[in-house]
Amino acid sequence: xSGVAPGQQFDWMSLLxxxxxxxxxxxxxxxxxxxxxxxxxxxxxARSGLRHLGVADAxxxxxxxxxxxxxxxxxxxxxxxxxxxxxxxxGAHLHAERTRADYESGAVWSAGDCAR
Length: 116
Known about the structure:
Layout: H1 13-20, H2 28-52, H3 63-71, H4 81-103, H5 111-115
Helix pairs in contact: 1-2, 2-4, 3-4
């Protein structure tokens, strides 16, 4: 694996690309991995977006706090509030699925579930 050169930022969207390339996988192992990678891509891009806007963001250990920030649309311009709430709802859903994938050994996903 190649590393990130000193002074460069990691491209979190590369995790999403990794996940997208594996959406059609047949094994539950890979489906869990797809969910995990897609979640962390979304989390870090959302967190970076808040930082870019100068909005105080959640500590990286408090994932639910980040999504709640978007769901409440705190810091959003009035015309952006709906989009922020959607980001929060989608992020919260991904967070729940990532938690299931990481901690519930009996959880199962179809290929369609993974694609969503």
